[in-house]
Amino acid sequence: IIEDMSDDNAATFRQLSDYKVTKQRACPKLNAASSVMYVGSSTTGVKKRIEQHLGIKSSKDTYALHLSHWFKGETKITIKIYDESLENEVLQIIEDALSHELKPAFGKQGGNNK
Q1: How many CA within 13 A on the CB side of residue 85?
Q2: How far, CA to CA in Å, does 21 sit from each of 55, 101, 107?
Q3: FRET partner for 75 with CA separation of 20 to 30 A, picked from 35, 36, 53, 90?
Q4: pLDDT surpassing 60 at residue 59
Q5: What is the torsion angle, in degrees rounded to the nearest 10, for the CA atoms of residue 87, residue 88, residue 93 and residue 94?
Q6: pTM higher than 0.85, yes or no?
Q7: Which long-range contacts (CB under 8 A, 24 or more apart) does 107-111 make?
């Protein structure tokens, strides 16, 4: 979970919206302004996925926030760890439930195979 710690979530939403138009990098779907910027999961490498969202060592073709390229504010990152034996489908249900509850500003709901 990546949160915007600023007092102006609408400005943050506009900033990514404006950056997305430049098509410099693959950016996530725009939803609506929220203090929660993104909800996601990873089964292959949390460190790499966070680096992609932060804009560190990230490919321009990877869908991520790429924060270092447009965002100047502070973020809070919350990592929830689940048992590695948890099936991917169950992890996706948890991610979808969190996304539904937290209503992140950016990112699609559902797995990559949908």
Answers
A1: 0
A2: 17, 28, 16
A3: 90
A4: yes
A5: 80
A6: yes
A7: 107/28, 107/29, 107/31, 107/38, 107/39, 107/40, 108/28, 108/29
